[in-house]
Design brief:
The protein is an alpha/beta fold. The chain has a single domain (3-144, 171-201), classed as NAD(P)-binding Rossmann-like Domain (Rossmann fold). Helices cover 39% and strands 20% of the residues. It is built from eight helices and 13 strands. A seven-stranded parallel sheet has the order 3-2-1-4-5-6-11, sandwiched between helices. A two-stranded parallel sheet has the order 7-10. The longest helix has 17 residues, at 80-96. The N and C termini lie far apart (49 Å).
Length: 226
């Protein structure tokens, strides 16, 4: 078994690696990262670290060689169109390397009418996998709860929550919860070749979220959308 994890030093990737180490042997895990120096601590633990730059296709095929499960975490570059070439490079390299299965970690805002500025990328990538020769699983994350923690002091200073969702609701998930689901799929073939949307058990209106942040932080935060 060889599990290859891309973007392993990123905010989600570190959680995925941590979860992988709970269920796989170190010699079963390969970390494909843009800058191997940032993964030096992992290499010291005995994990294989290889260079894999999404925009340097020549680095991807060797990085994906002998991979049974490839976890593809896209970059956080903007705008949406910038990520399309990276997806093309990853899929082409995975096909050439004969990767047995790929897990794409996406976002739930991929609907055709969704105005979110990254929605075109996720819509494109889902369809691009469908026309590839790869066996694949798509995991769509809800909004991350993690950024709310460092964001709280700024919200308290403003005294308001400014998400532009005046009439809708939002569901969240933490990166740790997402990582647990990703690795569960990677280690049990029952969960492969499907599409999942990862959320908490309920949605929140923005006034409800503002009330939660008020209770947690002890300072009044009202909802006032931009």
């Amino acid at each position: 078994m060889k599990l290859t994890i891309t973007a392993a030093t990123g905010r989600l990737g570190t959680h995925v690696v941590s979860e992988a180490l709970r269920h796989f042997q170190t010699d079963e895990i390969r970390l494909a990262v843009r800058n191997p120096q940032k993964a030096a601590a992992y290499a010291e633990q005995g994990l294989e670290v290889v260079k894999a730059d999404y925009l340097q296709p020549e680095t991807l095929v060797p990085a994906f060689h002998n991979t049974e499960i490839l976890i593809y975490i896209p970059s956080i570059t903007h705008p949406s169109i910038v990520r399309v070439p990276e997806t093309e490079n990853v899929i082409t390299a995975a096909e050439r390397a004969k990767v047995k299965h790929i897990i794409f970690v996406g976002f739930f805002a991929d609907q055709g009418t969704n105005p979110f500025h990254m929605a075109p990328f996720f819509g494109y990538t889902n369809r691009r996998f469908a026309c590839s020769s790869l066996s694949y699983t798509i995991i769509k994350n809800a909004m991350y709860t993690d950024p709310l923690i460092p964001y709280l002091p700024e919200l308290q200073t403003m005294g308001k929550l400014i998400y532009p969702v005046p009439h809708g609701t939002i569901s969240f998930i933490s990166r740790a919860e997402s990582a647990a689901a990703i690795i569960k799929a990677a280690r049990d073939s029952h969960y492969l070749e499907k599409t999942y949307t990862l959320t908490q058990e309920r949605n929140y209106t923005m006034p409800e979220l503002a009330d939660i942040l008020t209770a947690v932080g002890g300072k009044k935060i009202a909802f006032s959308p931009v």
